[in-house]
Amino acid sequence: xxxxxxxxxxxxxxxxxxxxxxxxxxxxxxxxxxxxxxxxxxxxxxxxxxxxxxxxxxxxxxxxxxxxxxxxxxxxxxxxxxxxxxxxxxxxxxxxxxxxxxxxxxxxxxxxxxxxxxxxxxxxxxxxxxxxxxxxxxxxxxxxxxxxxxxxxxxxxxxxxxxxxxxxxxxxxxxxxxxxxxxxxxxxxxxxxxxxxxxxxxxxxxxxxxxxxxxxxxxxxxxxxxxxxxxxxxxxxxxxxxxxxxxxxxxxxxxxxxxxxxxxxxxxxxxxxxxxxxxxxxxxxxxxxxxxxxxxxxxxxxxxxxxxxx
Length: 310
What we know:
Blueprint: H1 3-29, H2 34-38, H3 45-54, H4 61-73, H5 87-122, H6 127-141, H7 144-158, H8 170-200, H9 203-210, H10 215-226, H11 228-252, H12 258-267, H13 271-299, H14 301-309
Helix pairs in contact: 1-13, 1-14, 5-6, 5-8, 5-11, 5-13, 6-8, 7-8, 7-11, 8-11, 11-12, 11-13, 12-13, 13-14
């Protein structure tokens, strides 16, 4: 196993993270003065000056960035402009809810999407194949906020089966989980079908069929592992989209997670909280892609050997 392959991928992840921190810091600083949003309309010029001095906003931009980087390395994201609490404390109160929603949505989309894609590949051009692909196209074509609103109208307001807001019980989880999961489930089914059809047409699979090999063994022990790389790719890259989409869905279903906190913090220009959340979301995407790269190397030794020779 080439260590160089994993070191190169890890180094790229660190570089991406640094560029993310730089981009988020400077873009948020040039979008406006937080004092204008945080202070009341009757605030005096002295109040604005005092606010900027307290939070270090009166210092040169590069000095602010240097201080932020030093604190960031030590895990200090600063204090919230809104209530003075540590940003890590503010986010950590909401993060478990978001992780729970995201995790269950990913599991739901994989558990449903992959078997549907395998079924469609094994029954190519049948009614079941067309139905699955039609549902898949519908799933990833619909905006998730539209699906969320439709689910609320049907299952909460019309049928009264499920709650439309909050996170008190597991019933509150179902609608946002299905909403987020459906948009990715369609992609998983579609790409799984395509990858499986490509592998099922290979000579060694055709030969195995001709020799009367057990169908389940052929599909799950030979075809599926060889189709895993494109499937892993779409799952890994879609995690980033799900993280971004969860911001909208958390607000649609009043789910008390990080996404809802982000929207409320943007409204009052609480910069330390906003930039910390954006960086955390960016890190989630970087780590997802890094995990995909590592999985490539484990699934196909040719990839890490080729990368290690470069």
